[in-house]
Amino acid sequence: MGSLSSRCAALLLAGGLSVGHADPQAGFGLALAFSEHHADVSFNPPVFERYNSHGMGLAGDAQFVINPQWSLNPYLQWAYEYSHDEAASLINASGGLTLRHWWNNVYLGPVLEYDVEGLLQNRRIVRSSFGPGLGLGLGYESVQGLTLGLQLDAPQALYFSRNQQRTGAWLTLGYRWH
What we know:
Shape: elongated
Oligomer: single chain
C-alpha cells in the first residue's frame, strides 16, 4: 500500500503544480473507488486476527468553495472488498468531511470520517465494526472536472463489536459537475 500511495502522491503533485492555476469549483462529484484496508482485531491485546482486503466501489462528494485556496467537501464512499486472509467478503463504507487547501489543481487536507465495516460470510453479516477516524486527502481536479484522489486513513480504532485497529487507502477516479 505504501509504494502505491507514494507513487500516486508524487504523480498528483507533479501533474498539478505544472498546470495553470484553476480555482476550485463548487459542484457534485461521483467517482469509481478502489480501496485497500489492513486490520488487527482483538477483544483484548494481544491481536488475535489480522487481515488485508481490497476492492472497488463508488464515492460521491459535494464541494463548497470557501475562497480560491480552500474548499469544504462532505463525502460518502462505499466498497465491496475481498480478503484472502479471511476467505470472506467485506463491505467498507466511510462518510466524512475534508477541508481542502488548493495549489493550482492539486489539493491536500485533513479528513474527519466515520467508518463502518461488515464481514460477510454466506451472504450474511457475521461481524461489524464502526467508529470515528482521521485521514489525509490528496488529489487533482482538472478544469474540465476530471478528478483523481487519494485518501489515506490514519490508524484508527473501530469499536463496539470488537476492538479493531485499521488503516486504509482509497484511490478515486471520477468527474465533478460544476
